[in-house]
């Protein structure tokens, strides 16, 4: 729920910037970011029933950490996600929980060295079999096994990642150096945090002001 709230706040800020932006290139960057955020929000899993959520929350003791680092691989039948967690093999098996849907999974590791660990993957690139998917606990590692519904190669893990790669490839497919530079700024803006976006936006406004005064005769 907290992650969803952050996504919605980001979307509101992008919409606000769109109302202020007049340059087509900047608007393109903002529209790309807006589309990505809307897609992420759309694919967030529905909230759990209150009683289930409260029961799960009450069973958590200590600080909860969101896992961002992982490795992944694939075989003909499985997508394999490797999550390193020191000492995880010492926990009771029921403390390592993974919930699967056809296009997502979320991992919860409870009370590992006084902390809880969570990881969520939404909008997987292709559907998986809930029944055929599982998790394995290894030494200092959790292995999440997502069973592919179709035995085909995945180029990436999520639909959002695929769209981002396609846009990046199209953006850099240009022979105009100035166009390439602008596309690089677009990429920095799209992938940057709020501070990065404010910095780029400020630089754009200042450049506009200089251009209007005749200080720089260039279109950025």
From TrEMBL:
Gene3D superfamilies given in the database record: 2.60.40.790, UVR domain
GO MF term set: S100 protein binding; tubulin binding; ubiquitin protein ligase binding
Source organism superkingdom: Eukaryota
UniProt KW Acetylation keyword: yes
Protein location: Cytoplasm; Nucleus
Domain SGS, residue spans: 143-220
InterPro entries, alphabetized: CacyBP_N, Calcyclin-binding_UBL-bridge, CS_CacyBP, CS_dom, HSP20-like_chaperone, SGS_dom, Siah-Interact_N
Name of the protein: Calcyclin-binding protein
Gene this protein is translated from: Cacybp
């Amino acid at each position: 729920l907290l992650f969803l709230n952050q996504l919605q706040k980001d979307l509101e800020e992008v919409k606000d910037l769109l109302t202020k932006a007049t340059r087509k290139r900047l608007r393109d960057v903002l529209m790309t970011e807006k589309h990505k955020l809307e897609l992420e929000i759309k694919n967030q899993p529905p909230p759990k029933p209150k009683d289930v959520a409260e029961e799960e929350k009450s069973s958590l003791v200590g600080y909860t950490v969101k896992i961002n680092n992982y490795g992944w691989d694939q075989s003909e039948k499985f997508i394999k996600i490797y999550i390193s967690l020191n000492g995880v093999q010492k926990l009771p098996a029921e403390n390592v929980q993974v919930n699967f849907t056809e296009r997502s999974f979320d991992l919860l590791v409870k009370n590992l060295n006084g902390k809880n660990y969570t990881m969520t993957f939404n909008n997987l690139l292709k559907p998986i079999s809930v029944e055929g998917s599982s998790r394995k606990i290894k030494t200092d590692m959790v292995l999440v096994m997502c069973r592919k519904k179709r035995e085909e190669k995945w180029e990436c893990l999520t639909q959002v990642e695929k769209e981002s790669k396609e846009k990046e490839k199209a953006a850099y497919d240009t022979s105009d150096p100035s166009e390439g530079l602008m596309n690089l700024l677009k990429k920095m803006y799209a992938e940057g945090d709020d501070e990065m976006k404010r910095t780029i936006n400020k630089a754009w406004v200042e450049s506009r002001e200089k251009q209007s005064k005749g200080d720089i005769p260039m279109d950025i």
